[in-house]
Amino acid sequence: MKVDHISISAYIDDFSMITIVVNKPFPIIPSLSLVDDKKVSQPLTIDKQEYYDEVVIYKCRTRIPIDLKNRYWVTFNESRIPLMIGSIVRTAKFDSLYYDDTSLGAIYTPESTTFKVWSPVAFAMIVKYKPRQSDSFIEQKMSRTENGVWQVTLEGDHHLTEYLFVVNVNHEWIETTDPYAKSVTANGIHSVVIHLPETDPEGWNRSEKKINLRSKTDSIIYELHVRDLTIHSDSGVMNKGKYLGLTERGTKTTNGFHTGLDYLKRLGITHVQLLPIADFGSVDETKPDSGYNWGYDPVHFFSPEGSYASDPHDPICRIKELKTLIHTLQQNGLSVILDVVYNHVYKREESPFEKLVPGYYFRYDEGGKPVNGTGVGNDTASERKMMRKFILDALTYWMSEYKVDGFRFDLMGIHDVETMNLAAEKLKSLNPGVFLLGEGWDLNTNLEPEKKATLSSAKKLPSYSFFNDAFRDHVKGSIFPDGQSGFINGNQDARIKGHMKQVMRGYAGQHDTFLKAEQSINYSECHDNHTLFDLLSIRHPFEDEFMRRKRQQLALAFTLFAQGVPFIHAGQECFRTKYGEENSYNLPDSINAFDWKRCESFYKEVDYFKQLIRIRKTQPLFHESSAVLSEWKLPEGGLGFNLHLPISDIKENDSYWSNALLLFNQTTKQIFIPFEEKRWMIAIEDEKTSHRVLNEEQYRLEPLSFSLLYSV
């Protein structure tokens, strides 16, 4: 509001503190009062005057505490301005007074549906709803509880009723969808009431409790994007780019190479990690082929994305088809990890969070501006009680309703340690073998360093595995082309070589990053940044492609045989390229599609990948925590490790190995390794499987190659 060329706004910052912000000082301090809806007035006392970022701030104290059930105005000089919600929502007292642990959203029964939404700062609330087969919306007032939950019960069967909340906050009425909506109409225009059993596909057992007892180190994660894996013209898939595309059996290229689901089954991987499938905002669901996105721009956290559904207009379809995908993968022996994005929202101002409780769900700096550690304009505040509840509610919903096997947390370092440990405790009570992993990058958000769920806090988060950037950087080098190169690039810096034992040990130990190797997600490529093939093309522009591929296969060997959890980006096994694009999050299918013709052309390399996986999975030596790793001396340019399993831990099986030698050559020349003992068998050499006995006194390790020897 402007009065005499002074721009004025007023905010509630505490239960007895009002902040008045003006663009220049009052020439004469006016007499200030606070007036509520009942025209009860009380004087305001100015405690202090501050200057901040080209504005003047007057901190004023009230005599009677603010009651958030009322509306207020600040009056002065015969003028008045509406009092807006300020940083009061970020106070400990607010969290204490208004925390509510009841169920929220549209709570359905065939006889009635109860709508519940949390907004302690709302003056009034209406649910605006349109029953199935109705052409118009009906409005119904909602009542407020002491904890700030607004609710109303509508009689009758409201399955597929569309609805919105109309909320009066900050002296204006505004419409919003339900943050707890289980489904939405196309592009998330309206929330939809869902009778969830109606969304179950054939063969789905609602009463079944999903239990996974596979250890983390027995796991091999394969990261893929729903659209990417089937959209290629020669995928042989009917439902290209859809949830159902990944459920089709018997799909092949025109030359008969297995694709899609059948390809995944044959790889030997244990977990499929899906890039975000919760409703996101950057693709028009009614025209899904007109845009592309990875999905890290969440809007509705409980509803599946509609662009992957065969009918985005049908609120049941997106749920049923995603369940069909999850069920099909699990029936084919593949566990499912969802990539979840709770660290930010697509557009803060348009989010139901911000409309319902302005300023609560996000972090702000001292000047009241949103912080931006995520790089997308907002950071959610997981440490606040109702945001923490929201995250836990969403996770338990996806686990119980969709029966997923794990979660990968995008930018997990934005979240706080307490929230993540509470989430782990809750999820493990539902499924003791749930796989939890995340990105522990330390980002510049407004949270004390010791509270961040970062890599440096890994030992405080024993249930979580972390993307290990140290593993990545020492194996392949920096993600930035002009950064330091890694071991596979031929970097013989003593510091790089000195770290390779940590690489093979999964950075586990009393004085290292992790409590156990299972906390280390070992990877050399993921959806972010250049594919390894493209990065090697940049780093070695004058080298023959054959040699660059050999470097990539060295990285694959480290990934699969280091202690910890192997993580593979879809297509890495066949040298996936994105044609030099470093960040393809919104680029077209021509860049992002999984190229089945390319994969087919590298069928020998794909078979080699399968053989490496088979060895890792069938030999306890590579995933038992008791395995002892020691260095094996090799000539310059070579790197060797002996992996030994104590006799007491060797299972009674003649085919199990007690020792393995892992030999790496980072040079473009042969390395000759003397062997005094001839008790070794050769399993892998120069990207080929072998079953021969080592007879020579000097073993020849080929240029840029990996060999695996063993004894029983």
Structure description:
Belongs to the glycosyl hydrolase 13 family. It comes from Fictibacillus nanhaiensis. This is Type I pullulanase. Its EC number is 3.2.1.41. GO terms for molecular function: pullulanase activity. The protein has 712 residues and is an alpha+beta fold. Helix content is 20%, strand content 26%. The protein is built from 14 helices and 37 strands. Strands 1, 2, 3, 4, 5, 6, 7, 8 and 9 form a nine-stranded mixed beta sheet that branches. The model has no long low-confidence stretch (mean pLDDT 94).
What fraction strand?
25-35%
Number of helices: 14
Rg, Å, rounded: 29 Å
Describe the global form. Answer: globular
Helical amount = 10-25%
Structure class: alpha+beta
Q: Which whole number gives the mean pLDDT?
A: 94
How many strands appear in the DSSP assignment?
A: 37
Distance between the termini: 82 Å
The biggest sheet, with number of strands, parallel, antiparallel or mixed sense and barrel status, is:
9 strands, mixed
Low-confidence stretches: none
Keywords:
20% helix; EC 3.2.1.41; 9-stranded mixed sheet; pullulanase activity; alpha+beta; GH13_cat_dom; hydrolase; 712 residues; 8-stranded parallel beta barrel; globular
